[in-house]
Amino acid sequence: MKQTIPKPIGQLMVFAGLTALTAARHHDDIHLAHNTPENINADVAAVEVSVLDYNQSNTRLRQCYQIVSEKTEAAKTCATITREILKLKLGNQHSQRWINTGFADSLAMPRSATELLPVVFFLGRYLGENPGLQVPDLNVTADYLGTLHQDLLGAINAVNQELTQNGKLLSLRNENVAKLRKRMSDLVAELKQLLDPMDGRWHSFGLNIPGLEETPEAPEEIEAIVVHHTTALLTIPPVARANYYRIYQRIVGVDAEPLWIGSPSDPDFTIENLPLNSSVEFSVTAVNGGGESPLSEPVMVTIPPLVKSD
Which of 97, 178, 179, 217 sits between 20 and 30 A of 251, alpha carbons compared? Predict the structure, then answer.
């Protein structure tokens, strides 16, 4: 039977932790040479650390982006006020007179932090060259715009630095996860050399017993129709590896859980004596020597009330 190693990182770590505990418990009767509890736990610990480091970097990155947003709004506010004041001298329409202010092509205010950065810089320099246009009461000064420029530049650089670090931590996390997943594959291969295919200790490791059949998949696209008063016909498309099926029934509003009502080998199954004036759900599982599949998606039939003839 095929062994399944969990793909989600959290599930993989739990699975690996279970195998390490089991390997330690069976140390005296299962002599693992390569995939020992110590080696498994070391790989799990490496994943834990790298996941934590990457998550902390994500938190710092969100904080950096928040600071950029705040600095961008402060810079945009001051640049907007400065632009409106300069319109009294340079005009309401863009022209060559605006070139040295940072508004190279139009008077539209940039939206992004990187586009806003040169506008704030050149506005500050323009006011430094024309101090008579400064309005200290409104913070329209060369010094304040210079401070805003440095703050915004620092915030952008902090994001870029954390992005670089974040990428490195993500790569390290993925490398450690791949190493742990390989450790689990290697453990399965080593256990195949040490355990009989029908040995029950496979289950202790959270693994399937290889000597058993592979459990079939859940049936799909089952159909149910009412064929006569209180009788329904259930049609089950064949499922690979299924030896037979189990039929479960739930009367809506009556049964809390689906109840087993039969185990046919024939994919066409007739259900009789269904209650009048009810809605009934049917679900199906496929079964073989390896076990029972999950329940199929339920299908519903409606049994009408008894109609009295005149």
Answer: 217
